[in-house]
Amino acid sequence: MRRVTAPWVIQFIVAAMSILADRYRAEGDVVNLAERVIWAVNAGGDAHTDTHGIHYKKDPLEGKVGKASDYGMRLPILRSSPEDQVLYQTERYNEDTFGYEVPIRDEGEYILVMKFAEVYFAQSQQKVFDVRVNGHVVVKDLDIFDRVGHSTAHDEIIPFTIKRGKLSILGEVSTFNGKLNIEFIKGYYDNPKVCALYVMKGKPEDVPKLQPHPGLEKHEEDEEEEEDPEGGDETVKKIASQSQKNQVRSGPRTPNPYAADNSSLMFPILVAFGSSCVVLIR
């Protein structure tokens, strides 16, 4: 009896541990996220470590360029967890173009994530600006209120690649000298700004998504229906490009493995271990 049951118990334990490992692998990208981030700043605010383990440094432009604002601290920010709303409640703005410089040594695939929230204006066409990276316009005519509304988190996710001294970003290529220059360009409508930003190794799907925006998905579907399908290849490309951007900018929030109670997952392992002890004693 001992020879038959003991191996079965061992197999059961191994299977249970395999299930547990698979679950952690499915959610494990968030656990390793902090290790992939090479640079992060809480613009206009103090240092902060978010729920994904990303450590944002205090704004290095403090006292040098632009102005810091915590006007948003009086408002709750939709689509963001309570612990991380501070990343959208503070900001840095300037009456002229301003930016940040990020040193990057290694080649590979990277992601630039920029966080925004409109906490002052209550209508569109009040604050509109571009974002430029090493001379490439990566976000054109950003109107935060028009995108998501008031006091609502909005992320811009820009993938880029560095290889053999070249920067490839959104289909454009330029020489890379080891520094990523992120600029917020002064436009005709008010001043450019940013709430927080970081650079990480990886792909767009590796970036934690914001919580769903009520009504945003419906708005995007209506825009797609208004596109003329008879416009030829150029129209098709435009629709595909816009669809890809929408998929990157919004979506369900990535689960936080630290927030889950994993004691239930350990229960079958403990039961199996106790059963094996009883069998061996017999």
Automatic annotation (TrEMBL):
Presence of keyword Transport: no
Start and end of every Malectin domain?
37-197
Q: Where is the signal peptide?
A: 1-21
GO MF, one term, reads:
carbohydrate binding
Subcellular location(s) per record: Endoplasmic reticulum membrane
PANTHER family documented for this protein: MALECTIN (PTHR13460:SF0), PTHR13460
Q: Which UniProt keywords apply?
A: Carbohydrate metabolism, Endoplasmic reticulum, Glycoprotein, Membrane, Signal, Transmembrane, Transmembrane helix
What is its membrane topology? Single-pass type I membrane protein
Compositional bias of type Acidic residues: which residue ranges?
220-233
**Major subcellular site:** endoplasmic reticulum
Query: Which Gene3D superfamilies does this UniProt record tie to the protein?
Result: Galactose-binding lectin
Write out the biased-composition intervals (Polar residues).
240-249
Task: Provide the species name.
Answer: Pangasianodon hypophthalmus
Q: Where is this region: Disordered?
A: 206-259
User: Record's family?
Assistant: Belongs to the malectin family.
Q: What is this protein called?
A: Malectin domain-containing protein
Q: Which GO terms describe its cellular component?
A: endoplasmic reticulum membrane
